[in-house]
Predict the 3D structure of the following.
Amino acid sequence: MVNSVLLRSLPFPNASQIVDLSARSTLFDFTNLGLSLPDIADVRANIPALQSLATFRYSSTELSSQGHPKRLDSAAVSEDFFPILGMRPVLGRIFTASDMQPGAGVVILSTPLWKSSFAASPTVVGKSIVLDGRSHIVVGVMPALPELSYATDSQLWTPFVATKEELSARGNHGISALARLKPGSSLAQAQQQLAVLSARLATDYPDADKTWSIHAEAIKTLLLGDARAPLAILFSAVGFVLLIACANVSNLFLSRGLARKREFAIRSAVGATRGALVRQIAVECLLIALAGGVCAFFVAVWTLHGLLLVLPPGIPRVKEIRIEASVAWFTLGASLLAAFFTGVAPAFLLSRQNVSAAVKQNASDLNSDGTRAGHYFLRYALVVGEVALAAVLLVGATLSVRSFSQLLRHDLGFQPDHLVTMQMNFPKFRFANDEQALAFIRQALEETRATPGVTAASAGLLFPMGDGIAEGTFEIAGAEHQDKSDDQTSMMNNVAPEFFRTLGIPILAGRDFTASEPKGRLIVNAAFARTYFGSLNVLGKRISMHREAGKPEWSEIVGVAGNTRESNAGVVSKPLIYAPIYQSSDLTGVALLVRTDSDPLKLVPAIEERIWSVDKNQTFDGIQTMNERVSQLNAAPRSQSLLLGIFGALGFILALLGVYGVMSYLVSLQIREFGIRMALGAAPPQILRMVLAHGLKLTLGGVFLGLACALALTHFMRSLLFGISATDPLTFCGVAIALTLVALAACYLPARRATRVDPIIALRYE
């Protein structure tokens, strides 16, 4: 996983020189916002660290075909886009500067679309296809690339042609950009130059850029996104399990070596050097480690498919995860490292002995000699270390499981059962103005509500747990004197009547929108009311989201809706303003929300047929039940909890086996001592307490050390937890108590065996 996702380079030549350009604003929480074309022009002219720069914009395009048209993910890109990425077409050519003119009508296809819709025909270049109602000539086909959640995932690409308004609108931060660093320049240099430019733009254009800054980020860092933290945590968990296993095997080698100490003494007496003895033990360790590595490698090959099924979704390049030569070499290296950890220290300890004394010793003397401080210290250190590692694993696994449990119990704020979402798009070539789009929404909702089995239906630009997001600024009445840069921010949504009823969102105060809602009416969620007014008593309050001729246009709050869970589980509900959808402008599409009395997916074909009776060319995307969306958003923490739970259980079991093994061996070494104690009058319970106390000291030492390490390491899990602190005292105390009790249980069997020693036999034991 780490090799394929984090270490393997991107499929672009000199990918380390490619950077993504984005904007940030002090008004918004998001870190990767778009740029305006005037700002991009300033970047192109004033940043010497950049060699070339390309602009692009995500979109969706309608491909006309037999039957109903297809809605495809697409991107409009400038002529430098593919050269910066180093992508070459498998057929035809890429865009040129002459293609960046209005009406050029050219398109480049992706390999998947070329294969699925054009049968991979080598003569597709030069053919005409209809996109968004206009004829386009196919000029090239780009090679297939792994999914990167980037514009390279598009099914087709069209030329980036800016409108006159975009060319002059410095406040329109909606264009994406990437660039390639000039040879000899670094990302730090580019960012320093961008910081200087951002400061100048904020001064020169305060209305548009006062709160904005431009940033450069390595494209690999951008594409990996949030995948680094969970992968690093899982990889660390695997390393902890390996270290615990190494500690156990090292203890076994030490025990076996002590039993063979007389043999090693005799070998030394007949001429074997210390180096030869160390090599002998090291070779034995190496053979076992390599055998374990070979077994692990083949088990990994056989179980790779199962691992992919439980991986957190959203990990980039997950389809590239495979067993390859570098993984085999890593397995070999890990095996050699394991051999070093397990064999070197015991080998050096066992090679340091008095040869003459060791040859003369009998069995009982060997056992006595085996209790000397050096061997005891190493043995105890290994036990304490593996208990500490197990404690760290258990704390991490418990935090993850408890976090996931909190997530499942978290109130969504709506009812996901029997609810399906469908995205409808309104391309400008079919809907010339907003009135046509709004009229179609009314008709589509009427037809949907008339479908047998449908209990409620509505529409919205956005919906809870959806993929989209919108945020804007507003003013509160009574604060007209505030500076524009001091405007408050809130999430925004435009919804049709019955939106809250369809989703099951409660109206806490006031009312819902009506079909003929007068202009200037808004509904806010509870988070908005409490954040900006301190209570839900906000009916009649006025806010403004728009300015006309520099003056705010006031709207009245007529309702307060309940909070709903955000797509990001770790984020609390944000302030949200709902406006009537029938007063929207520049509509490009809406989400149709349908509640049914049975399985909603079975009613989708009937709903589509009814809407096609209004517009036979209407396309539908993102058809999915709300329960499926909730499950997908919970999949990442579920997978993380499962994997950490497995590693925690493995570490826990191995640590307990280590405690049991050490205590059992120590009891065998002390049989003669126990016999003498019992002959002198010691009762079995005293022997039992003595052995358990010894095991308890080792366990508590490991537990306290592990909790201290966990307290430092769980800091890195904070961003992955929901509803629970990374230093949750209940988790730490629970792990400490559970580990201590179970470790004592592991010590009980050897301790019980010590109480059954026959003093006569023990005193005669050799």
Observations:
- The two ends are 54 Å apart (CA to CA).
